[in-house]
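Work Package 4 report. The design task specified in the project plan requires that, given a folded chain encoded as structure tokens, an amino acid be chosen for each position. We show below one input record used in the internal validation round.
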């Protein structure tokens, strides 16, 4: 195992401009309410390998999503046929990238079941089965648990042993080096502490989330050591906490639209928003990632029920050789 990492500075860029490397404007890290004592020191190659997802889980959309799925804005109307076409584009993209996707049928009794990211957190051959705070979503874990345990051979750990803990996978940002866990309306401190106990080799820091459903509603990993983040006050407040608590030096790309900051980096390909939905953010993606393979996918209908690109796939990272 590599030696423990020491604290380093963390620099940001503004509005997608500036150098991706370190430099001026850096802020010193501090421990904050970090749970794990030390982060795992890993090489750039090992970090990149975490985004080389060999497998994943995806679920089809039930009819019930249109009227019954949870949402922050009850006035929106979902075009279920368009939602399915948009979801199909994500499924086909992941298959073309040679991610071995386990596909689940929809369940009309579970209107949010296509958001498979929330019920579990998977890393290094371990799958935490989460306690989701919304009682109506509890049965979503059943099929996902079976696939993770029986088909994908992950060691399953049940969060239900701590009844006070709640966690949604949408609040868990793993950088390839450490975890940031959003403390939100869906995830509490006990849930973050449970995750830290299970993944004790990694630094785990809690980030207070305001103005969004999940932490990843306004930021996500756009590549190894690159965080895409929205420009709203809420998103920038969350980023400031990350700056203060990070154990590593990350690059950031700030986007005009918080929703557009939810993207996927899979097998050296960046999956992000379309020009039609978020033209200004799309332009930044094209300018800042011009040498990166990119796929633009629509998300207009699932966004109406607070879903992002990351929400719709539970991706299983490759276990680095140093941990096997």
């Amino acid at each position: 195992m590599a030696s423990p990492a020491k604290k380093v500075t963390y620099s940001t860029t503004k509005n997608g401009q500036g150098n991706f490397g370190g430099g001026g404007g850096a802020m010193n890290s501090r421990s904050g309410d970090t749970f794990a004592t030390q982060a795992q020191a890993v090489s750039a190659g090992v970090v990149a390998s975490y985004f080389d997802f060999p497998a994943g889980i995806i679920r089809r959309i039930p009819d019930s999503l249109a009227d019954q799925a949870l949402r922050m804005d009850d006035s929106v109307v979902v075009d279920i046929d368009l939602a399915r076409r948009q979801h199909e584009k994500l499924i086909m993209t992941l298959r073309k990238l040679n991610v071995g996707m386990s596909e689940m049928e929809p369940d009309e009794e579970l209107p949010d079941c296509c958001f498979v990211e929330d019920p579990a957190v998977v890393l290094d051959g371990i799958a935490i089965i989460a306690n989701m705070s919304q009682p109506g979503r509890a049965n979503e874990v059943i099929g996902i648990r079976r696939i993770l345990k029986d088909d994908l051979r992950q060691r399953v750990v049940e969060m239900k042993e701590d009844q006070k803990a709640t966690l949604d996978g949408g609040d868990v940002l793993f950088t390839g080096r450490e975890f940031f866990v959003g403390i939100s309306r869906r995830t509490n401190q006990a849930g973050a502490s449970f995750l830290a106990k299970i993944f004790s080799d990694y630094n785990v820091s809690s980030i207070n989330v305001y103005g969004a459903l999940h932490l990843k509603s306004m930021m996500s990993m756009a590549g190894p050591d690159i965080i895409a983040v929205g420009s709203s006050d809420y998103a920038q407040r969350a980023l400031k906490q990350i700056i203060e608590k990070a154990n590593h030096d990350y690059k950031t790309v700030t986007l005009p639209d918080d929703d557009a900051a939810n993207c996927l980096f899979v097998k050296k390909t960046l999956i992000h928003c379309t020009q039609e939905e978020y033209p200004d953010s799309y332009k930044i993606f094209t300018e800042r990632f011009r040498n990166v393979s990119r796929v633009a996918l629509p998300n207009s209908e699932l966004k109406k029920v607070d879903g992002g690109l990351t929400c719709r796939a539970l991706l299983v990272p490759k276990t680095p050789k140093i941990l096997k």
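Residues 80-96 form the longest helix (17 residues). Validation will be extended to a larger panel in the next phase.
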